[in-house]
Specification:
By secondary structure, the protein is of the alpha+beta class. It folds into two domains: 8-95, lambda repressor-like DNA-binding domains (434 Repressor (Amino-terminal Domain), Orthogonal Bundle), CATH 1.10.260.40; 114-211, Jelly Rolls. The chain is built from six helices and eleven strands. A hairpin with a 2-residue loop joins strand 7 (168-173) and strand 8. The protein is elongated and about 55 Å long. The relative contact order is 0.16. Mean pLDDT is 80; it is low at 4-21 and 25-33.
Length: 213
């Protein structure tokens, strides 16, 4: 069974430091756009995070982050994406210098960077406006027949709101459960173990909102 994506604010507890893809390119070999190290340091300072805090949130080692911020190393794409996700940002927002732009933030349907996971059970796509200091996270979830999303309890007070666009699912929250069909919606506690299970014969399409208190 697949698991519900760990909310950004819970990833500090869930991240595992895997340094296998941290090996940087030498400085100047293939630099990211502009002063990437300076922007990372600026975003970190804006959140009042230490290097250790960012390391925990991103799964990138503290020493590697220090080298990147001092422009002594160019991070790999995988490492840069980890850092962007820790800041709740799209990759382009992190690596490109800010410029005058529309006040309307758009997430394009073809943007594969927004696909959080895709496997035999489900595909999860992040729809949240970025970058935000999030109290709310918004997902599109596609569940294959027989697929399920299961999650441990989130922070105390967290609730989830769900609407079924297609298919038939069972929503579980602790010991309670309800079956939902197209057009049905539900809200339930997410600070207890919870799950969404596709009980239909075809694919289920769900829109899911996490709200933190």
């Amino acid at each position: 069974m697949a698991e519900i994506p760990i909310p950004f604010q819970n990833r500090i507890m869930a991240s595992k430091r895997d340094h296998a893809d941290e090996t940087p390119t030498p400085p100047g070999a293939d630099p990211m756009v502009g002063d990437l190290g300076g922007r990372i340091k600026k975003f970190r300072a804006g959140r009042k995070w230490s290097l250790e805090s960012l390391a925990n949130a991103s799964g990138v080692s503290r020493s590697m982050l220090s080298q990147i911020e001092r422009n002594q190393a160019n991070p790999t794409l995988a490492v840069t994406m980890r850092i962007a996700r820790a800041f709740n940002m799209m990759l382009a927002d992190l690596v490109e210098a800010p410029a005058a732009s529309s006040a309307v933030q758009v997430i394009r349907g073809a943007d594969r960077a927004q696909v959080y996971r895709s496997d035999n059970d489900c595909q999860i796509r992040t729809l949240s406006p970025l970058p935000l200091e999030k109290d709310v996270e918004f997902y599109q979830v596609q569940l294959r027949p027989g697929g399920a999303l299961r999650s441990a309890a989130h922070f105390e007070g967290t609730r989830e709101f769900l609407v079924v666009e297609k298919g038939r699912v069972r929503v579980e929250s602790d010991t309670d459960s309800e079956v939902l069909e197209k057009g049905d919606s539900a809200t339930y506690r997410a600070d207890v173990p919870h799950a969404i299970v596709n009980t239909g014969k075809g694919e289920a399409l769900i829109f899911l909102v996490d709200i933190y208190r």
